[in-house]
Structure formats: C-alpha cells, structure tokens
Amino acid sequence: MGIVQELKRLTAADRAARVDLAAAFRLAVRMDLHEGVCNHFTLMLPDGKRFLLNRYGVHWSEVCASNLLALDAGGNVIEGEGEFEKTAFHIHSRIHLANPSAACVLHTHMPYATALTLTVPGRLEMVEQNALRFHDDIAYDDTYNGLVVDNAEGDRLARVLGSKRVMFLANHGVVVVGPSVAEAFDLMYYLERACRLQVLARATGLPFRAVRPEVQRDTYRMILADTPKYAAAHFNALKRILEREQPDFAR
Length: 251
Known about the structure:
By secondary structure, the protein is of the alpha+beta class. The protein has helices spanning 3-7, 12-30, 86-98, 111-117, 151-161, 181-203, 213-245, and strands at residues 40-44, 50-53, 69-72, 77-79, 104-108, 138-141, 166-169, 173-178.
C-alpha cells in the first residue's frame, strides 16, 4: 500500500499535523527561509512518541503531507520511505525529549538571522517592535562545534535552549520552537523580520535608538498573551494562499 493510501488511514490529528508541517516547508521557500535540501523542521505527533521530519533530498518546494517521515526517539522510521539527515535527528530529537512544550522545532539558516550569528556579540538588540517579541526569550550558543552528529551535542544544544523559544547558534543559524506549527512558524517569520531590520539599521553606521526596559517587558508580555490567537490567524491566512496556489502540499 502506498503512502498516500496509508494517509487515508491516519487519525484526523495526525493528518492535520502532516498538512500543517508541509505548509510550513512550502511557505519557508516563498519567504527565502530555506537552504537547498538542507535545514529541517519537525513536529511531535499527538501520541508524543513519534515526530515528523522532512526526508533528505526533497526540496522544500516538493514537500507534501505524504512524503514526510515519522520517526521514533531511537531514529527508526515508522512511517514513510527514504533517508533523513543525521544532524536533523540529533538536534531535533534531543530538543523534543528535553522540552515537551517544544512540539514543533524549526531549524534554518535564514539569511538575516544567520548573519547576526556571524557577528560579535551576535545579539538581537531590543530596539524595534518585532524584536520585542523576543525579549529575554533567546538563548545564545556561542560555541560552534561543527556538525551535530551525536546525541551528546544535541543534548548540549537542548540545555542551552532550556525553556526559551529561540536559540542563536554561533556561526550557524537559528532554532525556533513552539507548541504548534502555527506558533513556531509565526515566531520564525517575525524573528527574520526583526533581524533584517537590525542588519539594515547597523549598515547605516548610526547608533540604535534605545527602548526603555519597562517598555520592552510590557510589550513582550502583551504580544506573548495574544500569540496563540494571532499566530493561528497568520498561519491560517498563509495556508489559504497555498490552498489556492499550491494545493498539492496537502496531498
């Protein structure tokens, strides 16, 4: 029986999870948040024992609900056919295990955020409204150890991330996590927007205009409180565009 036929036997929750994650890949291509056939997104399935991962060698513009792999914590492919990237497993599986609230884990080398990871000190400054979404919510890993090819390095990254929703990986890229695809994708989108503005502002050579600490905190709290509602609205709007223009993502 083919994978498309198998999908028809999935629970509604599993099917919805596949469609949402496939949408995230397609949208990342549209927004230039991807890199070749590398980088990886994962989503823990409702049973908490399996997670979805993109198959290695499939361009993100080709990802659809039916060609995602489902893996267990040991790296066994439970559903789907094909190989997965080792670094994807060792980064994502360890974060999923360490942080149950990180149901969705997105790792990209998106241009502007990655550009900041190449600098010293490599911090996103709290000087712009989108950046304030991330006030005290970014972990910084300032130690680049090369490719993540074992669980020990994956565990180290999970410890650095802790309970934060974003991690900057020095000389590498970023990791964004959330309780759903919608929230994680919304966060990733606004992270890249904030980093883009900061890179552009730095290019002027002019000093940043400071935002008062209490305004930083209050703005972050207000945005965080509305995140589930606004992230869902944003992601659903983006999915409607895909449904009109690239409906095969859901097959």
